[in-house]
Amino acid sequence: MSAAQREFDIILYGATGFVGKLTAEYLARAGGDARIALAGRSTERLRVVRDSLGEAAAAWPLIAADASAPSTLADIAARTRVVVTTVGPYTKYGLPLVAACAAAGTDYADLTGETMFIRDSIDGYHKQAVDTGARIVHSCGFDSIPSDLTVYALYKQAQRDGAGELGDTTFVLRDMAGGVSGGTVASMLEVMATASGDPAARREMADPYTLSTDRQAEPDFGHQSDTPWRRGRDIAPELDGLWTGAFPMGAPNSRIVRRSNALLDWSYGRSFRYTEMMSTGSSIAAPVAAALGTAANAAVLGLGSRYFNKLPRRMVDRVVPKPGTGPSERARENGHYTVETYTTTTSGARYRALMAQRGDPGYKATSVLLGECGLALALDRDALSDLRGVLTPAASMGDALMARFPAAGVRLETDRLA
Q1: What is the distance between the alpha carbons of residues 376 and 370, in angstroms, rounded to a whole number?
Q2: H or E stretch including 194?
Q3: Burial call 386-400: b when 16+ CB within 10 Å, e when fewer
Q4: Domains of the chain
Q5: Rounded Cα distance, 28 and 55, in Å
């Protein structure tokens, strides 16, 4: 059955989880006439979620599916154009659904920030997905849409201006209010567990181009730190007075951005160099905060990736946020983020892309981004790229997402700097 003949446009798998329910709420508001179904282990719990969504979702079918029963995943993949999944940690639960979608030629979108899961997805299913026509799109939330789409927007603007290729490019998280989701924490723990138990995986995760389509074709810039610490003015004159430190999600995000460049045949440029930072402000304490935050991130990445498996897992699980949990509605509504990405092109032109969104980044904002990715894959097929396989948001649907963002309350704009 072709994608156009499928029973549903979108099946949301994991709708009873915290972010899954928020994504269902967003799809009920923004989905229009899209044919949507909810899937998960318990149809009774799915019914409770559906009943909370109002009239727009009243007729949405409920489908029992479980990662431990691959035939149920094959069933949902065969019935829909797109599967949107919030079921993580993806290292534990994700590959059977990737396999089902790749086999069925069904598009797929998730929220993973787990680099080795993405590498395993590429190694196991990229070729099959190319053959069947599936788009397997990872990292469709706050990790890594702002990173991936701001760089894509800069590339498009420089291309329109005839300003050359992108050179040194730096993402700066300027402002954020909100918490880290239990699902994100669980994913980070899985990343450290994988790295600490497998030296080969640890080496792959340390490689800035580990997700590239062709490792030998990538530039050799020497060591590229995932935990940099810099004065703002060293990034761009507009940031004079600010201090910046390492962004905790910079490692997985940067690898997604570099994969986008490779998937797009290095259209950003062969000398494209990418770094992620977060601002600590301009107060007298800002350089100290930047240094301490960077040191903490370096310790987590360095020590955690080597020794995490020596910690009692029960003790760790007892002190971290649980998957499926999250903040109050008021906290989610009061959250926000603003990122700015700066680049200098090979012609010397300077640009800045700004992306901002209301809502807690790890919860409300992420549910909007994931929902829009699902809708773009399902409904905007003429605006998608011709690429198939294991892809990134920018490489698969960059133009479609930029067209959708304004109506979704997502601000994304570029400007040329003096």
Answers
A1: 10
A2: helix 182-197
A3: eebbbbbbbbbbbeb
A4: 3-142+363-408 (3.40.50.720), 145-361 (no CATH)
A5: 9
The model's pTM is 0.95
> How crowded is the C-beta side of 184, counted as CA atoms within 13 Å?
19
**Bridge-based pairing state of the strands 350-358 and 336-345:** antiparallel
31 residue type, one letter: G
The 8-class DSSP code of residue 238 comes to: G
Q: Which amino acid is at 181?
A: S
Burial class (CB in 10 A: 0-12, 13-18, 19+), 260: buried
Cα–Cα distance between 254 and 376 in angstroms, integer?
A: 23
Dihedral angle, C-alpha 150, 243, 284, 354, nearest 10 °: -10
Region 42-58: mean pLDDT is: 97
Tokens of 231: 């004065």
pLDDT, tens digit, 9 for 90 and up, residues 199-213: 887 788 889 999 999
Contacting residues for 374 by C-beta, under 8 A, at least 6 apart? 10, 12, 23, 27, 82, 84, 109
> Tokens 């977060």 — which residue?
278
CA atoms of 391 and 397, how far apart (whole Å) = 10
Task: For residue 283, give both structure tokens.
Answer: 């107060």
